Amino acid sequence: xxxxxxxxxxxxxxxxxxxxxxxxxxxxxxxxxxxxxxxxxxxxxxxxxxxxxxxxxxxxxxxxxxxxxxxxxxxxxxxxxxxxxxxxxxxxxxxxxxxxxxxxxxxxxxxxxxxxxxxxxxxxxxxxxxxxxxxxxxxxxxxxxxxxxxxxxxxxxxxxxxxxxxxxxxxxxxxxxxxxxxxxxxxxxxxxxxxxxxxxxxxxxxxxxxxxxxxxxxxxxxxxxxxxxxxxxxxxxxxxxxxxxxxxxxxxxxxxxxxxxxxxxxxxxxxxxxxxxxxxxxxxxxxxxxxxxxxxxxxxxxxxxxxxxxxxxxxxxxxxxxxxxxxxxxxxxxxxxxxxxxxxxxxxxxxxxxxxxxxxxxxxxxxxxxxxxxxxxxxxxxxxxxxxxxxxxxxxxxxxxxxxxxxxxxxxxxxxxxxxxxxxx
Length: 425
Ligand SMILES: [Zn+2]
Description:
Shape: globular
Radius of gyration: 22 Å
CATH superfamily of the largest domain: Queuine tRNA-ribosyltransferase-like
Oligomer: single chain
Bound molecules: zinc ion
Structural class: alpha/beta
């Protein structure tokens, strides 16, 4: 038997995902349960598995700022979350290339959110001012006064980037997300703010539930368009009211979603209770994603209350603002001039392994005129902060599997927040 010439061998690309087209390409298995609602498990997707609890790194436009795909693999990232709103104008190109995995170069599991959050952040709902915490886009534009308007079919809004009016509803969001082709999509929902009262939340929730039904119907028409099964999570709103939260969890829980997004603007003190109401009503065998939170206390409370996956822009955004994480609490680099301390002695990220000190990082961060140095800082600090959160998730998962989660949670929080037990953020 002769050895074939190299050119005769079939070309195998290790990073190329194996795509499945069966209905079983998405599934969730629970490996271990805590005494309460928390659990460790595995989410199977067409582009690979996510071992939960897990943090999804946010690559809003298909890439994590200042962090390469190689870096993401190196720090143990399992999945990337991108945004349907920000990618909507590129969605035709993304579909033509076979979906988000091929287009972005991230070969692992992906998730998109519906864009509802971004659209609501642009303006107001039903004539009411939406006081969102996250108004980064708005503060940088002269269009702050321009409003988004909620209608029965969706949200009409002014797009400050392309400078024209646009519209997204459940139908549009599903079509956009199915062209982008992440493994997991979010139903289109209306996010209310902390300032909205019970009556408005009730009204908005009814609309979100109608949109959930439309999302399911439209998604079903397009979920196989790219050759693999794309999954859909229903999103739970309902503010801080137990009756609204439980009712919507029962209603959406009875619908044919693959999993659930836990949405809302939360006060820190209310988070655990609200998540408990949702998780107690939702089907146990479907995964739950807590949208947009990543402080360690929020993550650990979320895990306790049954959330399986998380995402947030905070680790990379805070890194760029000079705030880096350590086991003894977050560190603002400002006062650490000339310091030879590492950010965190126990961190295993490439930045810390290479010996970058707080003083060196601070100097790069202060190099506002030298973009090369500044961007090097953004890279080093983003890698560190993401690894810190990913490592927290890995340790939480091991602790659940070992039956030591409560001890792990208590000792982590005690060290991170000191005696106050609060992040103060
Ligand atoms: Zn590090």
